[in-house]
Design brief:
Blueprint (H helix, E strand, L loop, with lengths): L6 E5 L4 H11 L6 E6 L18 E5 L5 H11 L3 E4 L9 H19 L10 E5 L27 H15 L8 E7 L1 E3 L6 H10 L13 E2 L1 E3 H16 L10 E4 L5 E2 L1
Helix pairs in contact: 1-6, 2-3, 3-4
The chain binds nicotinamide-adenine-dinucleotide (NAD).
């Protein structure tokens, strides 16, 4: 019998992945209490793509770089599982990536490890990124043995690596907190504001008149529902005291075949 979650706090739950995380935790039986912590409220969602009733989900406005706001939400929601999926969008400056992905992640971990929360918060699942192992060259058949490059490609990747390390270093600390990190690649699916809209924008501005490379680039796109499902599986496995091979680990999340384009 898999372990059951009583209350999940989805940090960044108003985002693209966040809404699908809500949807997938909602389908769990027994269904946990579902709480969102985000700097912005969740968007209105099409019932064609999401099955949850928005009235069943509690939204808590807060910034992860503010420890008092985290304490207030942790006390109100009593999560046994935290899923940390918050991050600034692509294309922002270095400072904001460090503030949210590094300092904010450290603040979540520090507050979760305060003695007051030892008996409540049992697990943290961190949404990392497959880009943490990307060094600018094609990676074929990449797996978790691939090293993080010594020189990060950009500030986003640098801070996702640091965020992942902070969360994984907290595994086993405090009252026996369990943590893991999931590394999905480019996400697509309902609610996408970056990938397909970005490609369409390139088309509309005639950007396809120019070609970079030999038209043989390799990229891994992952369906958003699969990524959300992976987070639910990771959370359940972390709570399951019988399973020891998830805690403290990072996992690449992908569909079962690469996409060539
Ligand atoms: P998104 O921008 O749609 O969602 C991120 C959410 O985090 C937003 O709702 C935002 O308001 C919230 N947030 C930002 N700063 C915050 C703060 N200081 N405090 C609280 N909430 C804050 O992004 P997404 O595409 O859903 O990405 C979700 C996660 O997946 C991120 O951690 C991202 O790094 C990771 N990821 C995304 C992709 C992708 O292709 N989109 C690929 C790999 C990994």
């Amino acid at each position: 019998m898999p372990a059951s979650i009583s209350s999940v706090l989805i940090i960044g739950g108003s985002g693209f992945l966040g809404c699908h995380l809500v949807d997938h935790f909602y389908k769990l039986a027994p269904r946990p209490e579902i709480h969102i912590l985000d700097i912005r409220p969740p968007p209105a969602l099409s019932p064609n793509f999401y099955s949850f009733n928005a009235d069943d989900i509690s939204f808590h406005k807060g910034d992860i770089s503010d420890p008092d706001s985290l304490r207030t939400v942790f006390r109100a929601t009593k999560p046994d599982v935290i899923v940390h999926s918050a991050s600034p969008v692509h294309g922002m400056g270095k400072d904001i990536y460090f503030k949210v992905n590094v300092d904010g992640t450290q603040t979540i971990v520090d507050v979760a490890l305060e003695e007051e929360f030892w008996t409540t918060i049992k697990a943290i699942v961190y949404t990392s990124s497959a880009s943490v192992i990307y060094d600018g060259s094609d990676l074929r058949n990449a797996d978790e043995t691939f090293e993080v490059p010594k020189v990060p490609l950009d500030a986003y990747n640098e801070t996702k690596v640091l965020g992942e390390r902070i969360v994984l270093a907290a595994n086993g600390m405090g009252g026996g907190l369990k943590t893991c990190a999931l590394r999905p690649s480019g996400l697509f699916g309902p609610g996408d504001r970056q990938l397909v809209p970005g490609m369409l924008a390139v088309l509309k501005t005639n950007g396809t008149l120019f070609q970079l490379g030999d038209n043989n680039n390799l990229f891994d796109f992952t369906y958003i529902g699969n990524v959300a499902h992976a987070h639910v599986l990771a959370a359940v496995k972390l709570l399951d005291s019988e399973v020891s091979n998830v805690a403290g680990e990072a996992f690449l999340i992908t569909n079962d075949a690469p996409v060539y384009f």
